[in-house]
Design brief:
It contains 20 helices and 15 strands. It is α/β, with parallel strands linked by helices and 547 residues long. The termini are far apart.
């Protein structure tokens, strides 16, 4: 019935295998990779009856429509006044609102033995009391199995899904955003950091897993931050979703955009917005009728606008669930590619090329940063494979991202992680040979005097010749692993067109990038030997730190 992709087939097979050993299993898949198709395929193929749980009406209505489009209508709904168990002939698949079903009297009308599979969509919410109550009720049937699907299996408060079903739960399959982007199913991301000088978070506390929304909301409502954020947003064009910490902020910022900065280009969605309003806003974004959709926790899940090019955090978040779900809204390729992306794992390059040539080659993630926040905030590596990185690499990548994300072109996480590996490797080499390294104080740089003196100044003897042959310079560098394609691309873009033919190592490519970013001309930085490059980099850093 469903034309599943190769990784969706793999996820289904893995889940069925895990159900032979565990009562519950989890499929973790990035937003935009088709979790709904996976669980619907499993539900239709299940021999017994299936219960599907979700927490919002639109997470129930959309899959019902998909089943109907495939000619499957043996379904019933359990929510509000709609009841599924009152008829003699009971539907094979029951879609239930967890808010309705978790009520004790209503839950008691369900026979746990009448279902063989319970599916929980957006399962990161399953740690809530309402979900746990439903799970425990159906666990009275020892034969029932649970399938949980989410893009966000982890939480910063360490309250995980593994606590469900008395721990008899496994992770059957994981398809990460990094893997999905590499295989050409979602767009690559670029992150941007915008500082708000008049926004001081030094006294903001944590409430649950996130920053206290009332404190954050009060600070964002001040006139200076309001104008700084809106004036900056006014420079952004194209479909944009802005996540706000509170309803007041969403309304105030939308009003400011509509009356002063971009008239009639913004709308607001909040908890009381109807499904019709949500759908209309999505169509307005996709059609270009508006540019900005301000919301408060209402479009973090199940809100699919493939034309969306930008996600904006009006303030950073400490909630990994919220950050992952919200950022995931921009993962989907442009709607014009809806039927164009196809093929097996070997067609990844072709899919990436189609995305690169589409109206949405990348997704933009913008965060407005306050001053002096004392809590751990979410960062790109939290959703792009950071958990798999060694702590030293992760920390170095974070520091690099803070700098690159503040630049005009933003942060490319893959490139920054490559740089972090090179940086940590370089640091290890320096530590290993610290006793043998001696900074060369005599540097003659006709383009940039690292010592703060006059140009063309010689401070001693045995000065390295800036124009020494490229071959001799290369021989002065120790051997090492090759630079990544992303690093070579950066060097080509910044003035070294033949970077791939120079025999550079990853360490040298990384140091070249640092020197160029510090103001050294590319051809000059390329002429440095190892010790000279280290000495110049050290002096420039000291000068920048002092200035």
């Amino acid at each position: 019935m469903f034309d599943l992709r190769y990784y969706q087939h793999a996820a289904l097979q893995a889940a069925r295998a895990e159900h032979d050993r565990h009562q519950a299993t989890i499929i973790v898949a990035a937003t935009g990779t088709g979790k709904t198709e996976i669980y619907l395929a499993m539900a239709v193929a299940e021999p017994g009856r299936v219960l599907i749980l979700a927490h919002r009406d639109y997470l129930l209505n959309s899959p019902i429509k998909r089943l109907a489009a495939h000619g499957f209508d043996d379904v019933a709904v359990e929510k509000a006044e709609s009841r599924s168990e009152v008829y003699f002939d009971k539907a094979k698949i029951v879609f239930a609102s967890v808010q309705s079903l978790s009520r004790p009297k209503r839950l008691a009308t369900f026979d746990p033995r009448s279902f063989s599979l319970v599916i929980i969509d957006e399962a990161h919410r399953a740690v809530a009391a309402t979900y746990r109550r439903v799970i425990e009720h159906f666990r009275k049937n020892p034969r029932v199995r649970f399938l949980l699907l989410t893009a966000t299996p982890n939480r910063k408060d360490n309250i995980g899904l593994r606590n469900l079903c008395d721990g008899d739960i496994s992770v059957a399959y994981t398809y990460s955003p990094k893997q999905a982007a590499e295989e050409g199913w979602i767009v690559p991301l670029r992150f941007y950091r915008r500082e708000v000088e008049d926004l001081d978070f030094s006294h903001v506390n944590l409430k649950g897993t996130d920053l206290d929304p009332e404190q954050v909301e009060a600070l964002l409502m001040n006139e200076k931050p309001l104008h700084r954020v809106c004036a900056s947003l006014a420079e952004d064009r194209g479909p944009t979703v802005i996540f706000c910490p509170g309803v007041k902020v969403a309304h105030a910022y939308s009003l400011m955009m509509n009356t002063r900065y971009r008239p009639d280009r913004a709308v607001v969605l909040w908890q009381e917005s109807t499904d019709e309003e949500r759908e209309r806003a999505g169509k307005q974004l996709a059609n270009g009728d508006i540019d900005y959709l301000f919301n408060c926790d209402i479009v973090t899940e199940g809100y699919d606008v493939p034309e969306l090019i930008r996600v904006v955090w009006a303030a950073p978040t400490a909630s990994l669930v919220k950050f992952t779900q919200g950022t995931g809204r921009v993962f989907r390729p442009h709607g014009s590619l809806r039927s164009a992306l196809d093929g097996d794992q070997d067609n990844a390059e072709q899919r990436r090329l189609l995305i690169a040539q589409s109206p949405k080659p990348i997704g933009h993630v913008v965060t407005y940063y306050p001053q002096n926040c004392r809590h751990q905030l979410c960062e790109p590596n939290d959703i792009l494979g950071g958990a798999d990185l060694p702590q030293e690499i992760r920390q170095a990548a974070k520091q690099i991202q803070e700098a690159t994300a503040a630049q005009v072109n933003g942060s490319d996480p893959a490139e920054d992680v490559d740089s972090a590996h090179a940086f940590v490797g370089l640091k290890a080499l320096i530590d290993q040979r610290r006793k043998h390294l001696k900074a060369i104080a005599d540097v003659n740089d006709v383009e940039y005097d690292a010592f703060g003196g006059s140009r063309n100044r010689h401070t001693g003897t045995n000065v390295s010749d800036v124009k020494k042959a490229a071959k001799a310079v290369s021989e002065d560098w120790p051997p090492g692993k090759d630079p990544s394609p992303a690093m070579l691309a950066w060097l080509r873009h910044h003035g070294i067109p033949n970077a791939s033919k120079l025999g550079l190592t990853a360490w040298r490519a990384f140091l070249l990038r640092k020197l160029i970013e510090m103001g050294i001309k590319p051809e000059t930085a390329l002429s440095y030997g190892k010790n000279q490059a280290l000495a110049v980099e050290k002096k420039l850093k000291e000068k920048n730190d002092a200035g």
